[in-house]
Amino acid sequence: MKNDTKQAKTAAYAGFLLELAKQNDCFEQIDIELEIVGEAVENNQELLDILDNPFIEPKAKINLIDMIFAGRTHKIILALINSLVSKSEARLLTNVITAYRTMLDKDSGRQLIKITLASNISDEQKEHIKNQLTKTTGKPVRIKYHIDPSIIGGMIITRGDKYFDNSISRALKITQEHIKEKIKPQRIENPYEV
Predict the structure, then answer these.
(1) CATH 1.20.1250.20 assigned to 3-106
(2) What would the pLDDT profile of 63-72 be if each residue is shown by its tens digit?
């Protein structure tokens, strides 16, 4: 599938999904559940391979989707996944989810903020961070967390093209550079040298 066609299909699915969610006044529920579905699919390559396998009948794939997600996700999400599967476009799912969330952010004035942490934090801490960022930006925010143990501690916040690195690894690097500048190697003259 050409990239332009893929983007056009992704945008069409995401736009239709957002319209359905608005009509049914469930766009926030859809947003939350899509995040869960997206993580489930991204973290399970086997599932995506099955959904994308042309040798498996679409009905069998749809039955599998129903077994996994029915009763756990909104019927609109199930209809989306089933539509993608029946049209052999299951690989578009994660792109459609991203496009939907981007459209919803734009439509609701919500900002996406990406936060990198060294380890996971509690839901209470996440809620506190969200409240602080909402207060600071003056707009509703959606936070996407990423875990990277190499930053040791602290956090890295990305908002649009702004980047705030308050990680321990960065502080250590700055300290190391500062020490290197202050302690320049000096040549000690050897009195016994001829």
Answers:
(1) no
(2) 999 999 988 9
